[in-house]
From TrEMBL:
The keyword Signal applies. This is Uncharacterized protein. It comes from Adineta ricciae (Rotifer). It comes from the Eukaryota. Pfam families: DUF3990. The lineage of its organism: Eukaryota, Metazoa, Spiralia, Gnathifera, Rotifera. Residues 1-25 form the signal peptide. Keywords: Signal.
Length: 219
């Protein structure tokens, strides 16, 4: 074998070795990825499922081109009692599932999904949780326990929680979809935050089942 042939063989061997290393060492997408994205720094579409209602019943408050005018003052994951928040999903299917699951088994057989165009606004105070870590858990627990009725934030984003009960009473844990992923939610708390959302579309859906469903997106 000539020196030229040896050099060619060496180059081919190195090339094949690099390919094998890249294939073996390449990171693979994890089905159980325990993070959610952050959406608040750029324009986006968000979705809100409103159960047991119709487009007609919602009236002009949900007309295209309008911003939400308010929300309940109930305690939630990202805002305390007396403050409340306007919650949205980043996935249209999750909003549909939410509306369907909370409508099935009730007298009203329709629900609505509203699509919002979100546009960031400078000067708003935001908070982002990309995972359900201890900081997220402490924040969520504090909102359900708080009596301050105030929030230091305009908008908060992060994973949805799911309450459960053990021998010590009601607790908080993170909620997962049936394929093991976290569910993102955005909480728009203040009037200034609500103005960053504008209705882009609104759709009405009907449920087929007369019985309550156990197939909601969060467990």
């Amino acid at each position: 074998m000539t020196m030229k042939s040896n050099r060619h063989l060496l180059i081919v061997t190195i090339y094949l070795t690099l390919i094998v290393c890249l294939v073996i060492g390449a990171p693979s997408a994890s089905k159980g990825d325990k993070t959610v994205p952050s959406h608040l720094n750029k324009s986006n579409l968000f979705y809100r499922g409103i159960y047991k209602t119709t487009i007609q019943a919602l009236g002009q408050d949900y007309a295209k081109g309008k911003s939400p005018i308010g929300h309940t003052k109930d305690a939630g994951d990202f805002a305390p009692e007396g403050m409340g928040a306007f919650y949205v999903f980043d996935n249209e299917q999750e909003a549909q599932d939410w509306g369907r699951c909370h409508t099935e088994g009730t007298a009203i057989k329709t629900y609505v999904v509203v699509t919002y165009q979100y546009t960031p606004k400078a000067g708003l105070k935001t908070k982002s949780f990309t995972s359900a870590d201890n900081n997220w858990l402490s924040f969520v627990e504090s909102n359900y326990a708080s009596t301050t009725k105030t929030s230091p934030y305009d908008i908060v984003e992060g994973p949805i929680s799911a309450p459960f009960r053990d021998s010590n009473g009601k607790k908080i844990k993170v909620a997962y979809t049936k394929n093991g992923k976290l569910v993102w939610q955005g909480a728009f708390i203040t009037p200034a935050a609500l103005k960053t959302l504008v209705v882009a579309d609104i759709k009405q859906y009907s449920v087929a089942s007369k019985k309550g469903s156990s197939s909601c997106i969060i467990q």
